[in-house]
Specification:
82 residues; alpha+beta; 4-stranded antiparallel beta barrel; 1 helix; 4 strands; 24% helix
Length: 82
């Protein structure tokens, strides 16, 4: 039982670290350079660089990243701000 609690605590801590790395909506502005993951790249984790044209997610936070459209027309979720 104690081992299960420790394992859940470790997973919870790792999840919080991952969530802290994903920028919230109030940190993203139109015109800034970001790295996104597109839908077809979610399994591989390939990131695409570009400049934000529109912010598509209305809430301040999303666990997979804020969805944006880049100047190139590509749509994906922001993983990092460059």
């Amino acid at each position: 039982m104690v081992g299960l609690i420790k394992q859940r605590l470790r997973i919870s801590c790792l999840f919080q670290i991952l969530l802290n790395d994903i920028p919230s909506r109030n940190k993203i502005t139109v015109g800034m350079m970001v790295q996104i993951v597109q839908k077809q790249d979610q399994r591989t984790g390939n990131l695409t660089n570009g400049k934000v044209k529109r912010i598509l997610t209305s809430s301040n936070f999303h666990s997979h990243g804020i969805k944006v459209e880049l100047d190139s027309g590509k749509i994906g979720r922001v993983q990092k701000i460059i």
